[in-house]
């Protein structure tokens, strides 16, 4: 054979052999072998060139792909302002500094560092180790410079930044460890049974086909797990809160100086006056997750009015969020941001409250609540000073012509900021306070009005024709029996008022006069006229959940079950007792109707105007309008009746025999009103009332003072009323009475 091993010299006589075929051309054999091997390699090389040149963009694009993220721009909630422009409730903006986690991580993540270095290099430079190392060093230097600039601008120490970053990193690492543990547990759990294989009895071609399909379609089992990356590692985290606006704007204006850093604005509802008018303002707190509805403008964390004016005018105070478009890369870093729709801030709410008057009214109540209670005046037995101060009180004043609430004080009170940022200690103390500091007394505290109700009783007696203003009724101190239905003077001295007309009965608070009239008239006129003066119905004030009080009916008790109406119920009803209850606001409105000529006003706290604001829908400036009902005339109420009642109320304060002469009268201005001591029974002190209007000859302000379990109306509520009227004078809300000044 030609290819067997041999040496020609070992065959001396061998015939000469001639090479044939490929054996005669070894170069051809090598060339053929080269072609056979080179063709597949050329195909592979061509494919590599295609991937590197033509298809590279398609494969690299996902790594540089960006996405659009839409975020809400928080809108500022409208402010609540007093009549003089003082801020009662405001949204205070605060700014947070957020840093991307990879810029915080220590030690730096190598893959992130390499990626940031590659962003600074061309394709060719990325293959040069020296260039990559230099770029990484440049990134680290930029990172150190970032921390230095950030600390210097925010006024924080590098250690504070280190501590904040470490705290964030520990939290993120704990999350990563939890996710990693769950991932490992899932890997170790039994996998699903493999798919049914082809039967061995199937044809060989079919078996081969199914095997090929399975190998090509089933992903290979990975020997090593892919690197675990969680969302928190590719997100921004709050490093510092409550930085200045200047810091926030500087960071936003220089993204090249602060890479991986952004700011976030948030607002906090604050009440600068703290407990001043807290019962009226209410609270606005963030909306919780279980409160989300389909309303497009409401989102998690937005403020929503819970109580008081914040709840009543929530729609007007609430702003409309804007839209911010951010372009971020696959690692969550912000590349570009743009405001698509600016936020529309809520409208400001201007109140009728006079801030100085409100503050003085609250101080007067606070002083009373620190003093012991007093008893003994127009309708209560004489008693010694009570050992404990009154548990609470209320003072409300309204404009007699418009119903605008000038002051609405309540005591005790609470700091309105506690409802937004609760303090566990302060909250627990207030919640445990038996005096109920959260109780909105002006609109919810329904108490027996006592003798202040005699003004309505007088109107019912005169308008029903039961009595005439100058008609006298003899008073011997009691109606029928010395032990019941008595006047205070009889309890003190054992005598009566003698012959008494309407003016004297109001002046001296003669119970016998009104008992006698009630016996003649029956209960129905009192019910009818109490209803006409707004008793037993809500006043319509712009506050939520107002209490209507209780207006007893002759055929029904206060709690609903029908029972027999007794004559004693009518007698008690006539002097503001029985099951009758009213709120301080209802009594103030009653006095306003007597003062303004018989018009029943609707009390309100929001003014009919306010600061102008820009309406973004049409670009025009508009003024918010809060319409209130016009005063309604009380039907069938004659001017002569009002004149007779006003005369009696004037004498209560300015007649030496009046129940308010010693404790309410002022030398500078005339005051008309009525003292009242509402008996509560059960051994508890009575409620002290004084309600009236001033100036008596030209009424401007109607008011009501009530001290819970304060004892004597003239001795406890009267001095508060006098000092309140003095405050009206000092603040220029009313003018001195000229006839008194001439004396």
Q: How would you describe the overall organization of this protein?
A:
This protein has 25 helices and 21 strands. With 743 residues, it is of the alpha+beta class. The strands form 7 sheets. Strands 2, 3, 4, 5 and 10 form a 5-stranded mixed β-sheet that branches. A hairpin with a 6-residue loop joins strand 20 (687-694) and strand 21.
Descriptors:
single chain; 743 residues; alpha+beta; 5-stranded mixed beta sheet
Q: Compute the CA-based radius of gyration.
A: 44 Å
Q: Averaging pLDDT over every residue, what do you get?
A: 81
State the separation between the terminal residues, measured CA to CA: 157 Å
- Total number of helical segments? 25
Percent range for β-strand residues: 15-25%
Oligomer class: single chain
Count of β-strands: 21
Largest sheet data:
5 strands, mixed
Task: Give the low-confidence spans.
Answer: 294-298, 375-386, 610-623
Query: In one word, what is the shape?
Result: elongated
Structural class, please? alpha+beta
Percent range of helical residues? 25-40%
